[in-house]
Amino acid sequence: MNARFERLGAYTFLCLFALAVLLPLFSILSVALQPQGAPVTGLSWPDDPQWGNFARAWTTGSFGDLITSSMIVAVVVVPVATVLSVMTGYAFGTMRFRGSTPLFYVMLIGIVMPYEATVVPLYYDLRQFGLTDNYLGLMLPEIGLSVSFGTFWMRAFFLSTPRALIEAARMDGANSFTVLFRILLPVARPAVTTLMVLFFVWSWNEFLLSLVLLQDPAVRTAPAGLGLFVGQRTTDVAGLSAGALIVTVPVVLVYLFLQRHVIRGMLQGAVKG
Amino acid sequence: MTLTTRTIAGLALIAATVTACAPGAAPTEAPDAGKAVSSALPTEPVTLTLSHFEEGGQGKAIEQLAAKYQQLHPNITIKPTYTAFADYGKNIKLQMSSESAPDIAQAGQAQTMQGPLVQAGLLRPLDEYAKLYGWSERFKPGLLDQARFSKDGKTFGTGELYGIALGGNLVGIYYNRDKLAKLGITTPFKDLAAFQDALAKAKAAGETPIQLGNLEAWPGNHVLSDLIAQYEPLENGLNWVYGRKGATFDSPGVQQATKTLAEWAKSGYIDSSANGTSDSDGVGKFIKGKGVFMVSGSWNRSRIDENMDGKAGFTAMPPVKAGDPVRATGATTSPFSISAKTKYPDVAAGFIDFMTRPENAATLFQGGYLPVAERDAGQPKAGSAQEGLVETWQQVLADDGLALYLDWATPSMGDTLFPAVQQLIAGKTTPDELISTVQENWADERGNG
Amino acid sequence: MRANSRVAYLYILPGFLVFALFVLVPLGHTAWLSLYDWDGITLGTWTGLDNYTEQLADPDVRTAFSHSMVFLFFFAALPIGLGLVLASVLSRFRLRGLGFFRTVIFLPQVVTAVVVGIAWRWMYADEGTVNQLLSAVGLDGLARAWLGDFTWALPALGLVGTWVMSGLCMVLFLAGISKIDASLYEAARVDGAGPVREFFAVTLPGLKQEMAVGLTLTTIAALRSFDLVYVTTGGGPGNATNVPGFEIYKLAFRQGAVGEACAVAVMLTVLIFTVVLLITRLLREKL
Questions:
Q1: Would you indicate the residue range of the signal peptide (chain B) (predicted)?
Q2: Dihedrals φ, ψ of B317, to 5°?
Q3: Do B83 and A132 touch (CB under 8 A)?
Q4: Which among B190, B271, B394, C135 has most CB atoms closer than 10 A?
């Protein structure tokens, strides 16, 4: 009896929380369906939903090109940053070596620094090497920043994996590479997929870097398209919301796709743990 | 070498390196400076890039003109690229200093964007072209002054010409015709007192007298500056915006205007949610009938006309003394400048001239520009807000009555003044405090307070 | 030891190289620029530490830093608490639909800051959803234009941070709980422990590492926040929601004061770094 109440309470709590999460997102959808220029208030489904707003937003924001750009950047940044992060995290999390602590703290700087200011010197640095105005100039800083986070993330994961697992494999004469691939990575699946989701989300949503480093509007990334709905002193609210949803959908899809793997990986982890 | 000498040598080296490589670059003369300007166009194929932040109809007008120009001159291609205003300012300086700088660019206005660009020698002075094409006959002197800078980029409002604008913008009073009829209010107002009477009447009838969406903080500043334009002599205001010696914000006119705004807020004349409502939502509320008046700019006109269909009008903020000339906050749109790095300054100037020629005024007007060069650019729809707006615009332009924007005064003026206006409306600061904060910023930045 | 060191360095080298070239070098460049009076384009002039003293003396900058302390509560403390509750509820009851709840609650982490900003601007508007809900439960008296209220705008924005960060904490803790030895839970249940005691006796101690990670990430998010303020209030009303990240943005991009912006950026980096260092030290019993 008691247990059933608890269950009910748990469900109620979760449902309320999920609702609180979804409500603001739902309100964007309702606004995206308003006629252009119409006043917007509260949460109400429009009488005459303008699904055409999405088509309009797609062309106005030239999202076709922008999303392609975002894809190109993400497809390079995510795997490269993930591989590099797993490697650094593995070293920091499982090996003892001279200078490991200071080195780790240095790498932390990448996640603590606000780059609203650093983007200006970064631009000038990259310009010296002719790296502005092309994708590589955006990918490399994104990878650098991601690796900083990834190192922190993967190190924490490797630290919490039972040391006996690694020791046993080493006893059997496995080299560090084999330990990483055969023993640790299968257990690390959830951590790695979550990391990939986050990398993808950040790369996809990155705006300031892409704006400053890619001067040519034709190669900018998806969030830049939202600027097309915001003028100097006016905003096309319906268009902006529709555009915002267009930008968001691919990320959510990637997330959902990776999510299945996260769960599968997690069950594996649970069995092993 | 001992350790100390080595250290000293090292430090000296570091100091030398550091001082030798201060960031940025000293201005350089354009490679072909001094070469005679010409209206003759080259015969080889030329492609010019044009960066701008003109959204919607105005941006389309530019594209149309670029296409039309190419029809007339098949070897010349003008490639306009749009970047949203909020983002444009973030990278225009970097962009103009790079090798891939656009040939023609909107360089913003005043100190924030245009000043540093002039100072860095990245914009080409246009006075020779102005002579060549007769721009000073085409535009009122006050309009051209808004794009003038001294060569060192420090003095604004006089000096060399660095850009030509396509249109203008203006702040005034939008009103809801139905509500005015119900309340028995007639426009135009003969003086400010008449407008204040109308506000009191609206309040007494349970209406929201003035709709304002001030979440972004700049919209409220336009109400203040439109009041200042009435109370403060135009010349004083312009001197202050242009940063001329001896000008001050702490003057009787500005004090009166600021007090008036504070009183309006205190009397409940301004929507109590103003600070929490975005400009766009504020316009939305006005369209829905919340608010008898809305003090706002020409940029919101098309949305209002499209959604209120003849039920909205526009009139000027009335002068303090009946019969005085019409004054309003307003300016040209951001002028187009020519990059000092362009290989084809003649072509760039030719296109800028083309855009502002009388035969293209209609295209600009249809795009939503308030005409700066040509009086008879087109006819607004009768009974629309546009009708009142164009009429007001012509009145103001007739004797150079534009008061410009207060945040032009210094690069950080917007970030100082706008939050202070939010505080003033909420009763969190007094008019005197606002004025002294603002003047302090001005004195700091202009260095001659 | 030596050989092991070499192997470790080899693993670190590629990642560190990219990081050093594209993060560290520009950051050093930033620190160097902070010693100049520079507008980002024309020739700068050396000012030594003037930018620092000037910014530290600026009351607006100091208020901005104090606002990030408020954000610490909303971005870090609350989400960690909620994340713990959510994770333990989800794992204890082995509820059906775990995947669904997980996905939904993590969602805010996935959407762009712009989207978050637009959504919440409407939620908080005077005729927005929050006020609709309040009046539905008879609390009309509390309704206001939240983001324009000098008292409530900051906590209102803070709650958006809670909304965004809770999902991340939950996912983190769920993964951690799944690694806790199941026999520990069984033992606790045999002892007749209720959910609360089970939580404190088994779950919490087992999540030390995840707590450290969660606390670090949320703290950084709180102190570094910029996007949210940028897309909602722009620091207003007045300066009521201004934060250091936004101050940097204003200086660098709106006022053309790149030198000053760099100085604030360096100070903020040092502050966050110190806080993060403290967190790792405090939670590092095991290392």
A1: 1-22
A2: -65, 120
A3: no
A4: B271
Q: Do A38 and B86 touch (CB under 8 A)?
A: no
Contact C106 A255 (CB under 8 A): yes
Distance CA A46, CA A36 (A): 12
Q: What total of structural domains would you count in chain A?
A: 1
CB B112 to CB C237 under 8 A?
no
- Which one of C86, C175, C261 has the shortest CB-CB distance to A190? C175
Cβ <8 Å between A120 and B94:
yes
Picking from B270, C110, B161, the residue whose alpha carbon sits closest to that of residue A247 is C110
Per-residue pLDDT tens over the stretch B171-184: 999 999 999 999 99
User: How confident is the model over B230-277, as pLDDT tens digits?
Assistant: 999 999 999 999 999 889 999 999 999 999 999 999 999 999 999 999
User: Tens of pLDDT along A180-201?
Assistant: 888 888 888 888 988 998 999 9
pLDDT at position B11? 52
The answer, for B285 touching chain A at a CB cutoff of 8 Å, is yes
In a domain, A205, yes or no: yes
* SS3 at position B114: helix
Alpha carbons A54 and A68: distance in angstroms, whole number: 18
The pLDDT tens digits for B151-197 are 888 889 999 999 999 999 999 999 999 999 999 999 899 999 999 99
A38 lies within 8 A of chain B by CB: yes
Q: Which residues of A touch C123 (CB under 8 A)?
A: 23-24, 27
Q: Which residues pair with B149 in a beta bridge?
A: B156, B160
Taking contacts as CB-CB distances below 8 angstroms, the residues of chain A near C171 are 194
Does the structure show a pLDDT above 80 at B12? Answer: no
Architecture of domain C61-282 in this structure: Orthogonal Bundle (1.10)
Task: Tell me whether residues A17 and C105 touch, CB distance under 8 A.
Answer: yes
d(CA C145, CA C126): 4
Residue whose tokens read 């084809």: B344
Domain CATH code at residue A121:
1.10.3720.10
Please give the radius of gyration of chain A, using alpha carbons only, rounded to the nearest integer: 23
Instruction: Name the minimum distance, in Å, from the CA of B50 to any CA of chain C.
Output: 21
**CB contact (8 A) between residue A39 and residue B285:** yes
Q: Please check whether residue C124 touches B, CB under 8 A.
A: yes
Whether residue A118 lies within 8 A of chain C, CB to CB, comes out as yes
pLDDT tens, position by position, A148-173? 999 999 998 888 777 888 888 888 88
* HSE value, Cβ hemisphere, 13 Å, CA-based, for A48: 4
Establish, for the pair of chains A and C, how many residue pairs have beta carbons separated by less than 8 Å. Answer: 285
pLDDT digits (tens, 9 = 90+) for B83-98: 888 888 888 888 898 8
**Segment (H or E) for B370:** strand B370-371
Local structure of B332: helix, strand or coil? strand
Shortest CA distance to C60 belongs to which of C262, C248, C269?
A: C248
- What distance in Å separates residue A48's CA from the closest CA in chain B? 16
**Is residue A29, in this structure, part of any structural domain at all?**
no
- C99 lies within 8 A of chain A by CB: yes
What's the domain range around A208? 60-272
Q: Which of A38, A211, A218 sits opposite B87 (nearest CB)?
A: A211
Q: How many CB atoms lie within 10 A of CB C135?
A: 13
- A50 inside domain: no
Residues of chain A with Cβ-Cβ distance to C175 below 8 Å are 190-191, 194, 266, 269
The string of DSSP letters for B216-257 reads TSHHHHHHHHHHHHHHS-HHHHHHHHTT-TT--S-SHHHHHH
- Whether residue A131 is contained in a domain is answered as yes
What chain B holds in terms of domains, given with CATH numbers, is 46-163+334-368 (3.40.190.10), 170-330+391-446 (3.40.190.10)
> In angstroms, rounded to a whole number, what is the distance separating the alpha carbons of residues B344 and B365?
28
